[in-house]
Specification:
Chain C: It is found in: Cytoplasm; Nucleus. Chain C: Belongs to the peptidase T1B family. The complex is a heterotrimer of chains A (263), B (205) and C (194). Chain A has 263 residues and is of the alpha+beta class. Chain A has helices spanning 3-6, 19-29, 59-62, 88-109, 115-131, 176-186, 193-207, 239-248, 255-262; strands at residues 34-39, 42-48, 73-77, 80-86, 140-148, 152-158, 164-166, 169-172, 218-225, 232-236. Chain A has a single domain, classed as Aminohydrolase, N-terminal nucleophile (Ntn) domain (Glutamine Phosphoribosylpyrophosphate, subunit 1, domain 1, 4-Layer Sandwich). Chain A is built from nine helices and ten strands. In chain A, strands 8-1-2-9-10 form a five-stranded antiparallel β-sheet. Chain A is globular, with a radius of gyration of 19 Å. In chain B, 31% of the residues lie in helices and 34% in strands. Chain B is α+β, with helices and mostly antiparallel strands and 205 residues long. Chain B is globular. Chain B has helices at residues 54-75, 81-93, 143-153, 160-176; strands at residues 7-12, 17-22, 25-27, 30-33, 39-43, 46-52, 102-111, 117-124, 130-132, 136-140, 185-190, 195-200. Chain C contains four helices and twelve strands, in the order ββββββααββββααββ. In chain C, the strands form three sheets. A five-stranded antiparallel β-sheet of chain C has the order 10-1-2-11-12, with helices on one face. Chain C has a five-stranded antiparallel β-sheet with strand order 5-6-7-8-9. Chain C has a single domain, classed as 4-Layer Sandwich (Glutamine Phosphoribosylpyrophosphate, subunit 1, domain 1). Classes of the chains: A alpha+beta (263), B alpha+beta (205), C alpha+beta (194). Chain B binds chain C through residues 4, 25, 27, 30-33, 35-36, 53-56, 58-59, 62, 98, and chain C through 82, 85-86, 88-89, 92-93, 118, 120, 122-128, 131, 137-138, 141.
């Protein structure tokens, strides 16, 4: 029966459902986990990478660029970073759109785009793709971590239907239920960035399939205010920095593990 | 070019470059503001100064920022001074028959294959004809005077602090003989790892 | 002839504009309000070509209001100034440019700072501690150079404004008779009897 309402474009089924959107959401719940946490003096994002393997050429991520491997966490503007879950090709197109929208705002108003407005810009487009004929919706959910003078640090989530909402801590992708209940238990309102980094790493280590965390499976980013300039400063960690951070929190690979592997 | 007044200058040093402007914004002979900077950062190692019609200075500053940011996003690297100079040139030439009334001056450091940083300066006319110089470039209502003082003071291979002194003396003494420029100056000395920015007082009249 | 003045003080911006609407040598109206409120903390004094002034000011007013309705918060003064400047700069290179000069005074509630922008019909913008448009500027700017204090309270600010207006009335052949004075601070916008 469902065939009649989802084979071509997004039209309502007799029960009032839009199957294509539900399928898009389903695609996302299989994607790598992305976790965001809002602290009082910053926002933290972490993401699980799915495309790995030692034959994958990662030389571009090691140096150059602004950090990150370009799979899960992106810099949208100097004051906003985003974590994406879903179809990577769709995500790339949305990231490109977001960056252009942010630059257009900077051009007309001479200020960084407010975080919620950027989320709205993307959601306007996502919503359009659920309504106009012949096209499928974007199979992507995003977490936006950003700063603007109106509401200071913020964390938003948007889904393929074009809905968006603000969060203190949230998670998208595989195992998001587990992660969200962990976050609900552990979240405190006056959490600092340092504590938030620890919490995010702990939750990620519990929700991800692999036993040990490492830079080949994880992307990590923090948005804070620069101490001197008081302007937002986005830091997307490079692989070596992620490994160092994991060591610091006792979540990285142990030395004996590598020894056993080589034995 | 004489409507709002103002002057800019850039100079080459040893492994560094300097660029500066005066701070006056006028409405013909009437001074409207004494804090109007005409030099803007493009990347950590490139600055652009613009003299001429102030509305076009602001418009082009915003336009260059937009284009450079889009370049950085698409290329995933920062623009090099030479590419930026050509971006400026083509942006100006787009308006060949109804030009923006500004004369840009650019200063930056470019990274060689060996990883060293080499100085780069350039200037252009209002329709984007580039002028690459090895020593110094000037523009604005005091340009004739600046040419004269710079010709006398500049020498090759100046260290950062000596370059700062040379460009400061050139700019302050140049604009002192120009009614349309003055009210102090701002100087940026661009080094591979940092930029030294200093605001100078002049005759303030 | 048209005159407008503005100055910043400790936590406020004062804006004054004359109230005459003239055509050639004839006064058509003597109680015209040439200072618009663009938001809860933003004032704009406009002068220039009659017709262009009201058309342009209303266009700006409506668009700034639209932004506030869409986004639930108003544009901050620096962003509003940049947007208005762009509108004039684009207009300058259009078939029929607006010839409108503006003084834009605002109080930024997100960082508690007053700011004043001088904008002319070409789209030239400058952030300044005090500003004037019209023939009054030839007298008032030098007075403001001498007497302006960015830390002055409202009474002291009004006293400086009084000096400017008195000087213009005394020395300018075609001086306007009456002014409207408005102030913007942390509490919003008020008109001051002058």
């Amino acid at each position: 029966m469902a065939r009649r309402y989802d084979s071509r474009t997004t039209i309502f089924s007799p029960e009032g459902r839009l199957y294509q959107i539900e399928y898009a959401m389903e695609a996302i719940s299989h994607a790598g986990t992305v976790l965001g946490l809002l602290a009082k003096d910053g926002v933290v994002l972490a993401a699980e990478k799915k495309v790995t393997g030692k034959l994958l050429d990662m030389s571009g991520a090691k140096e150059g660029g602004y950090g990150g491997s370009g799979e899960k966490i992106f810099l949208l503007n100097s004051n906003v970073i985003a974590g994406v879950a879903g179809i990577t090709a769709d995500a790339n197109s949305l990231v490109n759109y977001a960056r252009t929208a942010a630059q257009r705002h900077l051009f007309t108003y001479n200020e960084d785009i407010p975080v919620e407005m950027l989320a709205q810009r993307l959601c306007d487009m996502k919503q359009g793709y659920t309504q106009f004929g012949g096209l499928r919706p974007f199979g992507v959910s995003l977490l936006y971590a950003g700063y603007d003078p109106h509401y200071e640090f913020q964390l938003y989530h948007s889904d393929p239907s074009g809905n968006y909402s603000g969060w203190k801590a949230t998670c998208i992708g595989a195992n998001n239920g587990t992660a969200q209940s962990l976050l609900k238990q552990e979240y405190k309102d006056d959490i600092t960035v340092e504590e938030a980094i620890g919490l995010v790493l702990r939750v990620m280590s519990k929700t991800m399939d692999s036993t040990t965390l490492g830079s080949e499976k994880l992307e990590f980013a923090v948005l804070t205010l620069d101490r001197n300039t008081k302007l937002p400063k986005a830091k997307i960690y490079k692989p070596a920095e992620i490994d160092a951070l994991l060591q610091q929190h006792d979540l990285g690979k142990k030395d004996e593990d590598t020894e056993m592997g080589s034995a | 070019m004489e409507y709002n007044g103002g002057s800019v200058i850039a100079m080459v040093g040893k492994g560094c470059v300097a660029i500066g402007s005066d701070l006056r914004l006028g409405n013909q002979a009437l001074t409207v503001a004494t804090n109007f900077e005409k030099v803007f950062p493009v990347t950590d190692r490139i600055y652009i100064g613009m003299s001429g019609l102030a509305t076009d200075v602001a418009t082009l500053r915003e336009q260059f920022r937009f284009r450079v940011n889009m370049y950085t996003i698409k290329e995933e690297r920062e623009i090099e001074p030479e590419s930026f100079a050509h971006l400026v040139s083509s942006t100006l030439y787009e308006r060949r028959f109804g030009p923006y009334f500004i004369e840009p001056v650019m200063a930056g450091l470019w990274k060689t294959q060996a990883g060293e940083y080499k100085p780069y300066i350039a200037a252009a006319d209002l329709i984007g004809c580039l002028n690459f110089a090895k020593d110094f470039v000037v523009a604005g209502t005091a340009s004739e005077k600046l040419f004269g003082v710079a010709e006398g003071l500049w020498e090759p291979d100046l260290e950062p602090e000596d370059l700062f002194e040379t460009i400061s003396q050139t700019l302050l003494n140049g604009v002192d003989r120009d009614a349309y420029s003055g009210w102090g100056a701002v100087i940026h000395v661009i080094l591979p790892d940092k930029v030294i920015t200093r605001t100078l007082k002049g005759r303030m009249d | 002839m048209e005159c407008s003045f503005a100055l910043t003080g400790k936590g406020y911006v004062l804006i004054a504009a004359d109230t005459t609407a003239a055509r050639s040598i004839v006064k058509m109206k003597i109680d015209e309000d040439k200072i618009k409120s663009l938001g809860p903390h933003l004032l704009m004094a406009y002068s220039g070509e009659p017709g262009d002034t009201t058309q342009f000011a209303e266009y700006i007013e409506r668009n700034i209001r639209l932004y506030q309705i869409r986004n639930l918060y108003p544009l901050r003064p620096p962003s509003a100034a940049s947007w208005i400047r762009r509108a004039l700069a684009d207009s300058l290179r259009s078939r029929k440019p607006y010839s409108v000069n503006l003084l834009l005074g605002g109080y930024d509630t997100s960082n508690h700072t007053p700011s004043l922008y001088w904008i002319d019909y070409l789209g030239t913008q400058a952030e300044v501690p005090f500003a004037c448009h019209g023939y009054g500027s030839y007298f008032a700017l030098s007075l403001l150079d001498r007497y302006h204090d960015p830390e002055a309270n409202l009474e002291e600010g009004l006293a400086v404004l009084r000096r400017c207006i008195d000087e213009v009335s005394k020395r300018l052949v075609v001086s306007p008779g009456k002014y409207r004075v408005k102030v913007v601070d942390k509490d919003g916008i008020r008109e001051i009897e002058f």
